[in-house]
């Protein structure tokens, strides 16, 4: 009779095996399709690496549980343990990066003492640079991020509450005093911008430029990522608990494999 723990591990790894095949398939599709944009093709490598890693892990789990091969189950549990440690490290890293108050509290200020780490500005340094920001702009243009804004006359447009990132990237800053034509087309007054701010000069009515290079857009985008990482904490916790449960069941399956009279293969 099949032990329950072995059956659960086998079932879980069949599901992850299917997910891995789908990830690899999408990755190869993004790579091969000439019609895909550079932004979409950039998903190729992460999807492929994720798919291959999950595929190998699933095969180890399936062989270890279905064939009752303790050696493969040991390797499977070892990689699960590394995943658990990695998720703990990632959670700590997320707290440091996405919560400026925490990063400031951990920094040692004053005198010539070295700081623990300027984690609060990590996202800004690694996102708002020439290479990465260029790819982000390409993605916003490709997926027509600004074309989803509400349309209408000036009075109707100002009734809507836009997300901070969309408000900062898809239209000129309000303090520039530009005249409304439509949601993504604004006219500079003949007297010039209301304030001599660099973002007012950076704005362009070109649909591939808009205010994507504005400092306000970059700041809002980083703030949006920080908020999303904070929201992701709950999802990360649920996945962490699920992996802990799978790891515990895997340990039971390993014990079953090593128990007396339990080495016969399935018929």
UniProtKB/TrEMBL annotation:
<dbReference type="InterPro" id="IPR018499">
    <property type="entry name" value="Tetraspanin/Peripherin"/>
</dbReference>
<feature type="transmembrane region" description="Helical">
    <location>
        <begin position="42"/>
        <end position="65"/>
    </location>
</feature>
<feature type="transmembrane region" description="Helical">
    <location>
        <begin position="71"/>
        <end position="97"/>
    </location>
</feature>
<comment type="similarity">
    <text>Belongs to the tetraspanin (TM4SF) family.</text>
</comment>
<keyword id="KW-1133">Transmembrane helix</keyword>
<dbReference type="GO" id="GO:0005886">
    <property type="term" value="C:plasma membrane"/>
</dbReference>
<protein>
    <recommendedName>
        <fullName>Tetraspanin-8-like</fullName>
    </recommendedName>
</protein>
<feature type="transmembrane region" description="Helical">
    <location>
        <begin position="6"/>
        <end position="30"/>
    </location>
</feature>
<dbReference type="Pfam" id="PF00335">
    <property type="entry name" value="Tetraspanin"/>
</dbReference>
<dbReference type="GO" id="GO:0009506">
    <property type="term" value="C:plasmodesma"/>
</dbReference>
<dbReference type="GO" id="GO:0009734">
    <property type="term" value="P:auxin-activated signaling pathway"/>
</dbReference>
<dbReference type="InterPro" id="IPR044991">
    <property type="entry name" value="TET_plant"/>
</dbReference>
<feature type="transmembrane region" description="Helical">
    <location>
        <begin position="233"/>
        <end position="250"/>
    </location>
</feature>
<keyword id="KW-0472">Membrane</keyword>
<keyword id="KW-0812">Transmembrane</keyword>
